[in-house]
Amino acid sequence: MRYKEFGKTGMKVSALTVGTWAIGGANWGAVDREESIAAIQAMLDDGVNFVDTAPVYNAGHSEQVVGEALQGRRDKLFLATKTALYNDPLTGEAIKDGRRDTILRLCEESLKNLRTDYFDVYILHWPVPGQPVKESMETMMELKDQGVIRHIGVSNYSVEQIEEARQYGEVELIQPPYSMVNRSQEELIRWASAQGLGVMSYASLGAGILTGSIRSMPNFAPSDIRMTFYDFFREPKFSHTMELLKTLDKVAAAHGAPVPQVALNWSTQKSFIDTAIIGVRNPAEAHENCSGFDWSLTEDEMAQIDAAIDCTVGR
Question: Per the database record, which ranges form the NADP-dependent oxidoreductase domain (predicted)?
Answer without folding.
Answer: 16-309
